[in-house]
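Deviations from the work plan: none for this task. Representative record:
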Amino acid sequence: MIALGVVGLSVFVIPLVGLVGRVPWSDLPEILTTDLVIDAFRLSMIASVSATAISCVLGIPLAFVLARVEFPGRGVVRAIVLLPLVLPPVVGGAALLFALGRRGVVGEPLNSLTGLVLPFSTWGVIVAATFVAMPFLVITVEGALRTMDRRFERAAATLGASRWTVLRRITLPAIVPSVVAGMVLTWARAFGEFGATVTFAGNLQGRTQTLPLAVFVALESDRDAAIAVSLLMVVVSLIVLIALSDRWWGRVS
Amino acid sequence: MTGDGLDAAFTIRLSDHFRLDIDLAIPPGRTVALLGPNGAGKSTAVATIAGLLAIGSGRISLGGEILDAPELDVFVPAALRRVGVVFQDYLLFPHLTVLDNVAFGLRTRRIPRGEASALAHELISRFGLEGMEGAKPSELSGGQSQRVALARALAAEPRMLLLDEPLSALDVTTRARMRHTLADHLRDFSGPRLLISHDPTDALLLADEIHILEDGVITQTGTADDILLRPRTQYAADLAGSNLLEGMAHGGAVDVGTAMVHIADRQIEGPVLISIRAAAISLHLDRPEGSQRNSWSTTIWRVEQMGSRVRIRTGPPLPLTVEVTEGSRGELGLEPGRAVWIAFKATEIGVQPG
């Protein structure tokens, strides 16, 4: 059991070792302070944090609907919500392009009404990241709502609590750990997003080129830069995952 | 009934096979117990009166106000009923402190935070929980949790109290102690009180009146004495430790089919229910002498140890449950298959019209 576990762990550790072994340590400060990297880092942060925020605002209510409202076709709706988890991101990006592109079914009226153009813009990066990452939040929060003991909500009602008070003082506090866990997963997925972004938003430095896209471009031209940026992503991701895992994931279980 | 009492006469169908029929009235200041086995519909009764479940037909009213009446299209939701509930597992909010749990029902009534805290503090010390204000429910013992649950329900100033198996989550020792504490606190509450229980001891000690609920139907209503001395169903007879028999009475004897049982009452005629307490029946190895009118020979079917008491089931002509001490079991060598004489006095038999 333990031996197999160690082998399993090595699946994750070996690539990491390979990467760290090739890091050009002496040139690292210089590479990481180029405009290209700074722009990509800033954009990745903006996109992943925005996607997480949007996922919370829209995903928590969606999780409530899926967990608490009975309606015909709920299984189909849930499947559609979870589709981005299994769909190749490139397909998702293409679908976004057809729907939200300048001449897409939603993109065209959106453009003529607001003048907003999503593809090949920073907004497009955020939309693509939200599309692939929000399912993590919905699935986590929906699970928490389904497994929570609803008798506490009934007890609160007998104490005179309105539906809003029950939601605010009983239901939401009960699912906070799951919301945070879902946010971490969502952020992590958005931070590493590549396929849908490059398809839907393109690869323009400063506007749509996030860190993963910068790595992909650099692999062709400047291998050291690719490794340096990869290391940057590994470090940032690890910091977030470690900082939050101790505080929150322990509480979820 | 009017005034501040509870009137509940309703029917609710939960499935094709289960229907709950309730008809009870509780005046203010009185405790009524709904006593019944698991699955009898007791928790459903709590949910309907608390407003967590709508009734199918009939009416529930409290203090003259109609809370639920489908025919009139009236349904007052739980949050507006002011029916205080102490739940079976207490359901203290796990993320709130004892103080915030107790203050919960005060805050929902828009009492300012400071005032709510002060009132909650007062209640907490009335329940002997000073110093526990900052504790989380997971840090409390069973008895403490029960008191917090009662304090939380009372803080919301309910018009009536529903207690759903308030003692069943406690261990035996705590249970006996909390039964008395609970009795004291119930006396202090002036509204109607409904106690749900499957434990006859709770019902007998805490309630002024007992309704026995079996399979969704109230099968007997009465005081503790009524239930113990004159049980009307097998369940009630089991609670009282009695044998319940149906028969036809005539001239001081009841024909129960396979035997004639002599009773003290010579006037009663026609169909009757008779109950014979298991502890009032004696077993002998030889034909007993003396004043016992009812006596016959039989064999022992089964022997069940119940703590220091032993329950013995006898065979034909009339299967009865007899309770003896462990001592006399050994003395008489009471084992399955053994031939014995059974005897009980006519005056020990409870008789009521069937």
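The CA atoms of residues 44 and 53 of chain B lie 8 Å apart.
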